[in-house]
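Reproducibility note. Readers wishing to regenerate the assembly model reported in the main text can use the exact inputs given here. Chain order matters: entities are listed in the order in which they were concatenated for prediction.
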Amino acid sequence: MRQILISLCLLMMATASRAELVVEVTQGVSEPSPVAVVPFGWSGSGALSEDVAKIVEQDLGRSGFFSTLPRESMLSFPTREGDVYYRDWRVSGADYLLTGRIEPTADGQVKIDVGLYDVLKEQRIPLANDIVNSGSGQLRDAAHYISDQVFEALTGLKGAFSTRIVYIQAERNGDQNNYKLQLADWDGARPRTVMESNEPIMSPSWSRDGRKLAYVSFESGRPAIYVQYLTTGKRERIQSFPGLNGAPAWSPDGNQLALVLSKDGNPEIYVLNLASRQLQRVTHHYAIDTEPTWAPDGKSILFTSDRGGQPQIYRLDLESRNLERLTWEGNYNARGRLTDDGRFLAMVHRPTGGNFTIAVQDLKSGRLDILTEAGLEESPSIAPNGSIIIYATKQNGRGVLSAVSLDGQVRFRMPSRSGDVREPAWSPYLH
Amino acid sequence: MEFRGYILPTILATLLHVVILGALLTHWVGKAEPERSMPRHIQAKMIDLEALSQQSSQSAPPPAQPDRQEQERAQQREEARQAEQARQKAEADRQAKVKAEEQAKAKAEAERKAQADAEQKKAELAAKKKAEAQAKQKAAEEAERKAQAKREAEAKAKAEAQAKAKAEAEAKARAQAEAKKRAEQEAAAQAAKAEQARQQAAQRAESVVGDIQSYINELLRRNWRIPATARNGMEAEVSIRLLGNGEIDQVSIVKSSGDAAFDRSAVQAVQRTERFDRVAEVDPILFERRLRSIRVVFRPEGLRW
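Running the prediction on these inputs yields the following structure tokens for the assembly.
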């Protein structure tokens, strides 16, 4: 009996010692992955209008997920797989490598042949489309498209480089004010005017399908809410009540608009059914309730209210009418925007004794992180993939747009040629 | 335990001894008296006639009183001679008388002695008879006692034998148990020794493996770039096959975190490491057993989210 026990024990120990060694790694380096975007080859005549590789490099670098290898550090400029010497790229410190070859096609278009490589694994990473056809005038679009593909292949997240932003640009010409609703690439390139007025334009908001904008215009002398179709340019005034009409926000299903009206005395949140034009008041408080935004599931509305004495962000469940205060840190939290997964709340945050900053709060843990240095930041808007927050700030007394990655690691400024820029709104995915 | 069983025999034996002692005491007392009354060596042998005559001649002169010289002397001599004769005669008479007395006395003595002897004999006989009877009784008693003793002895012997047998059996059993126990202890001690040796070896191996474990952890930690998509609670498990020189032969995800970038970062951490040099220093058998194939769990802690 004893011997059996002993031999059993030994057997168990023997089998236990056969178990594989397990190493647990709980710490690492929180650095973006280095990517080398090699200048794309061009086999056509003349020079191309855009440096496609440069756009891709900038896209990836600004996402906060990647750092890019400067071209000066590259030992070679391969344009096809056969020319890639992994060892060299490994030495350069790149984890990934992107090569490209642009060729003119018979119909005057171009064909871009790209290759993404895992330098450490010494393997090519397949992309959804290795070959991108583009008009020679749409090289920026092609570049953003390539960026989206690379981003998705490497992070698993859908890239938001082909999305757009709108913002308000105000200029003063002589003694006249000029307001423009501008539409641009996500990086601020290629701006174009959607609507222009001598009276203030405010609070642009994208519909979920990315085809319409709602905004407040004072063109009639008093604030009114308009909806404008981007493709056709057609616009309609959908609501105008006495007093304040402001801050329209599209519901996720696109059928409703949350807005702020003061027709009943003081600013309250209302929900307007766009089809039936039925208006429903959802907040009832003598304090100011404003800046509504929809939760991604459309079941609740977040808004700013000073009912607690200072502006704070609250969540109202539309069905149960339960009200919940979400922010507790600092004496000013306003203009909340949720990521598409509903987890992170970006907002204008003023810490006690501080200035206005952009902060993000993890609604799961309650943790709040300040992403920008104290300034006069306002109007955060989040990229549809949740990776970047764009916001307005002041530079030399002039309004400019800046962006910061959600983890606060990468910040960059949008180019702005002139005027005061404010109230950026990031589009949803456009295709 | 069997003390009670010995009480009766002990009392009986004691009683018997007392009885025998009593009997013997009367015997010893009875016998002592006749011996003491026996005057066998008192007077008879110490008679010396010569010494007696000299004694009488020497003691003669005092009565012969010398009157005149010769006559007196002759007379005296005569007188002396006569006196001497008379004395001698008296002496002889006295001697004869003494002798007769002595003889009579001896005779009486002999008679007395004979009588005493006879008495003594008689007494002795009686004593002897008595002693014999006593002896007989004693013998009978003794026999009885002996028989009793024998019975007792037998019983005792039997009991003892039984006890002895029992004790022996017990002792045997004990000895066997002891031997068995000893054997078991020895076996256990040997097993323990073997186990200890094995454990020591295992401990040594374990400490080597532990070292390698933290070494691998350190290298991977330096080489793991946690992607921005990583969240606390994510976990990816990677299987690594090593070559004897510490080089990484194969690496693959065995348990995905559900996040492609996270999984890739885990694999890349291993690939970026390229080789675990110190693995080459490990004993080949231990390497084969424990390090040829290892698993790494990547589980970030303390991330912002």
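We highlight two features of this model. Strands of chain B lie at 236-242, 248-255, 293-298. The mean pLDDT of chain B is 80.
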